[in-house]
Design a protein that fits this description.
heterodimer, A: about 425 residues, mainly alpha, two-stranded antiparallel sheet, B: alpha+beta, 2 domains, four-stranded antiparallel β-sheet, 5 helices
């Protein structure tokens, strides 16, 4: 083991990664433009929403990770805390992109003809409740249930909630980063204690508001349906996908020759996290499914009915196989958690798996079923995914390269982290 | 011939004891085992202790538990006495999952406990086998099998040089038999 580490080393964002992330962004932009130009505006909007949400959630997971480490006074993670801090620094940009997608989706409209042959002005996103005629009696598509939810599901309040929540998370992410970089300048416990308090406050706020965020962004796509499990289910998905991305970033940084102090024991912990919270995700996924299935109340079952259609059913099952089966079987043994190649594979599997999970949340209720299950995912989906992947890589590595050092050298638990052993 | 069965080096500091292990290893004295009142990180690697196979036992017990209850419930509710509950099919697989999960956990927990008791010869009502009582209190003990490891005086000297506070020559392996 190397004992001499250079703590002053700064990350240089150059070379192949930069080129490829820019190429991926270009692919994404071309796909989005092509999507709009080839009359696939609705599908493109749905994909933008999906990836915007995914991107925001992954960044928020970074702040959640930092906050949990501080609140638990964990020592092992001190030497890698700069990576999730960079996630937090990207959150404001991710949130901005997400809000822009949502606003354009709400205000760019098209005409949709209903069963009676009447035409209605419908927004591209959240058509289930944001269509004006749903709230107008005698419009032909008046929906008393949706109209009854107007107190909560109306555009100004909806956007206010979204902006306030994302702004609040971004602020806490920035504060945690700020305290940690201040800590580098001055020795002592002052900034650590501040981080501890701010982390506890953040976790309380985040824990109670992330379900609201999930209800707004995802659940309101099918506005007549509701599930109280949905918020926690999304939180679990957010956390697993965030941990997978974090693992991948740490593996990349190590391979690029940085963070030589990260040992296989730290990676083991990341593997443990991914394993444990994949099980947790499955628990919540199944909890939601079992209760809906058992109670069999029509307005609840409608959600799974749509996902049970022939064109979604294969994806529905694949979702469980790759998000539960793969981590369970691959990550169970100690050796596989200590093998970097396996961790990398499972992180990529989980990232794709949780994309599929979000896909399951968005598509059946918006764009709806297509002819075959294999035409359900076309060229727009991978294109937008690659675009956002490139954008995330670019912004994250750019944020990392702004850090003066990749390690909080004055962190009180740093020694513990450097000698972490399991 | 000496009646000594085991030579015990008692240390009062874990770091000194770790150096003692190095010293013995350097002098090619095989170490029988080390007893400490608290877990010491990295000691398994140093002594070359094989990784525990308790996890594999846990996995097998879990599989056993899951299979047992799933088969039982299947026999009861599908084969032997199918019932119409809320219009669900007799083989209502999602309903079986919680019970399967619980039994998997139950079998794993009990199975691991029994395996651990079995492997460590601990069992309710049985006096635990201890080579030195203070190894559970404030002494870090290195045990060396005296058989074949002669001369004993050299080992004693090595242990004393390494900083042992006391060296014992025990005629019995365990001191705790009733």
């Amino acid at each position: 083991m190397k004992t001499h580490n250079s703590f002053d080393e700064q990350y240089q964002f150059t070379g192949k990664v930069k080129t490829w992330s820019l190429v991926a962004i270009v692919i994404g932009v071309i796909t989005i433009l092509a999507g709009f130009l080839t009359n696939n505006a609705e599908q493109t909007f749905d994909n933008l929403l999906l990836m915007g949400y995914y991107f925001t959630c992954v960044c928020a997971a970074g702040i959640m990770f930092c906050a949990i480490q501080y609140a638990a006074q964990a020592g092992w993670s001190a030497s890698l805390i700069r990576v999730p801090q960079a996630f937090g620094k990207v959150l404001p940009i991710a949130a901005l992109i997400f809000v822009i997608i949502v606003i354009s989706g709400l205000f760019i409209t098209h005409n949709v003809v209903d069963d009676a042959g009447k035409s209605h002005i419908t927004p591209y996103l959240y058509a289930g409740w944001a269509t004006h005629d749903l709230h107008v009696k005698g419009s032909g598509i008046y929906d008393s249930l949706i109209a009854g939810k107007e107190g909560f599901l109306n555009i100004p309040f909806f956007l206010t909630r979204m902006i306030v929540l994302l702004g609040c998370y971004s602020l806490f992410g920035w504060l945690l980063f700020k305290y940690s970089s201040n800590e580098d300048e001055v020795q002592g416990m002052k900034y650590y204690n501040k981080s501890f308090i701010i982390s506890c406050v953040f976790l309380v706020i985040f824990g109670f508001t992330i379900p609201v965020f999930a209800f707004d962004s995802m659940m309101s796509l099918e506005a007549r349906w509701f599930s109280t499990m949905f918020g926690w289910y999304n939180l679990a998905g957010l956390w697993v996908s965030g941990l997978s991305v974090m693992t991948l970033v740490i593996i990349y940084l190590r391979k690029a020759g940085y963070m030589s102090w990260i040992t296989v024991d730290h990676m083991h912990n990341m593997g443990l996290f991914m394993f444990a919270f994949s099980i947790f995700w499955t628990y919540l996924w199944f909890g939601q499914f079992l209760l809906t299935w058992y109670a069999n109340i029509p307005e609840e079952s409608a959600y799974f009915y749509r996902r049970w259609e022939p064109s979604f059913k294969p994806w529905f099952w694949l979702n469980i196989v790759i998000n539960f089966g793969a981590p369970l079987l691959i990550l169970m043994s100690r050796d596989s958690k200590r093998h970097i190649g396996t961790l990398k594979t499972i992180a990529i599997i989980l990232i794709i798996g949780h994309w599929l999970d979000y896909f399951q949340m968005v598509m059946p209720g918006t764009i709806g079923a297509k002819e075959h299950w294999y035409t359900e995912i076309g060229w727009i989906e991978p294109g937008v995914f690659i675009g956002f992947g490139g954008l995330f890589t670019f912004l994250l590595l750019n944020a990392l390269s702004k850090f003066k050092s990749l390690i909080p050298a004055k962190h009180p638990f740093l020694e513990e982290s450097l000698h972490h052993h399991i | 011939m000496s009646s000594t069965k085991f030579i015990l080096g008692l240390f009062d500091d874990p770091d000194v004891m770790m150096e003692g292990i190095s010293k013995l290893q350097k002098n090619s004295v095989p170490i029988y085992d080390v007893y400490t009142p608290m877990p010491i990180h990295g000691i398994e690697d140093k002594l070359g202790v094989k990784p525990s196979r308790l996890g594999y036992a846990a996995f097998m017990f879990g599989c056993l538990g899951g299979t047992t209850i799933f088969s039982l419930v299947y026999y009861f509710l599908v084969h032997d006495w199918p019932m119409d509950i809320g219009g669900k099919p007799a083989f209502a697989a999602p309903n079986f999952i919680p019970a399967t999960f619980e039994w998997t956990v139950l079998f794993t927990a009990f199975g691991m406990t029994i395996t651990f008791f079995f492997a460590t010869h601990l069992f309710p009502g049985r006096a635990p086998r201890v080579m030195d009582f203070r190894a559970t209190d404030d002494r870090f003990v290195i045990a060396i099998d005296a058989k074949g490891n002669i001369p004993h005086a050299d080992i004693t000297n090595l242990l004393m040089e390494a900083g042992a506070v006391e060296v014992k020559h025990n005629d019995r392996k365990y001191v705790s038999y009733e």
